[in-house]
Task: structure prediction
Amino acid sequence: MSVDFYFKEIAAEIKRESDRVKFGYSTHALSSGENREDIVRDFLRNYIPKAFGVATGLILSSDGEFSNQADLVIFDQLYNNPLYPNSTNKLWLAESIYSLIEVKTHLNPNSLSDSIEKCKKFKKIKRKYSTTPNLPNN
Result:
């Protein structure tokens, strides 16, 4: 077995899943898109290191600005949790997010432009990193 063959098979399975979604939700684009996001999320959860989590939600900057709804975010799973962890639409502090992913069913100039604008907004979000202060000696 070769690594190329392994990942070609995984890509083929992802395509089959995507085609099943396309067929099953042919008249409901929103559900089709959400199911495709699930396919990508499941793939990432299986193949990125366990220190990283994959979820969806909004990103909050240190100055209170919100991002657009992110299809998928990759976050630091060891040292961070979202605000409102039990909500479907979680709220993530910008400092905990490594990556934002937009999942598109159809790639055309409008959807590409929309994705680029969302990514630009995410990149411009203010982040404020701090370290734990030194504790006074007793």
Summary: The chain has a mean pLDDT of 88. Residues 50-126 form one domain. The first helix runs from residue 3 to 24.
